[in-house]
Design a protein that fits this description.
Radius of gyration: 57 Å
Distance between the termini: 154 Å
Strand order of the largest sheet: 1-2
Shape: rod-shaped
Helix content: 25-40%
Largest sheet: 2 strands, antiparallel
Strand content: 5-15%
Length: 178
């Protein structure tokens, strides 16, 4: 008994020969496969001698037509759905709660920012008022009026002192009191 895997007159097609990656609709060049015996070589009967070729066709055994190779559908995957659904629900709920907390913090910070802006405006107005008061009190007209209220009088002519080293110091002279 001869064991062969390929008929001598047929060339085996490789996956590289096919442009569809081996998934074709024309399966006439493929070899028979029967379930778990896909890798098992076909067993062919030994060829009969030439003397038997002249025997009537009725006495010959009809050869079975080899089954064609077909692409089997992928095995169904039975993954448990409950843990996946629970995981998706937990992720969605965590996302919603996270967004809610984030939105609450943003609103809270907006109120704090508004209060700080109001306080900054009040401090700016206070600084402007104080700067205006200082400028008003430093003006020469106001300084002279305040000096007169305190009893000070303006000097008429300045007095000069000569120091032994030759420098002159200007000293205001006494004012005329009225």
């Amino acid at each position: 008994m001869n064991v062969t895997t390929l008929p001598a007159d047929r060339q085996r097609k490789t996956q590289r020969d096919s442009r569809s990656g081996g998934r074709t609709t024309n399966r006439e060049n493929y070899y028979p496969v029967d379930g778990a015996t896909a890798l098992k070589p076909q067993v062919r009967p030994e060829p009969q001698s030439r003397t038997h070729e002249s025997a009537p066709a009725q006495s010959r055994k009809p050869q079975a037509k080899p089954a064609r190779l077909t692409v089997a559908p992928p095995a169904p995957v039975a993954a448990p759905r409950a843990p996946f659904v629970a995981l998706v629900l937990v992720l969605v709920l965590t996302g919603v709660v996270g967004i809610l907390v984030l939105n609450t913090k943003i609103a809270e910070n907006a109120f704090v920012l508004d209060a700080l802006h109001k306080k900054q405006n009040a401090l700016d107005q206070n600084e402007q008022q104080l700067t205006s008061d200082i400028a008003n009190k430093e003006s020469p007209v106001n300084l002279a009026a305040r000096a007169a209220r305190l009893g000070l009088v303006p000097s008429r002519t300045p007095a000069f002192l000569l120091l032994p080293d030759g420098t002159k110091l200007e000293m205001p002279g006494p004012g005329n009191s009225k």
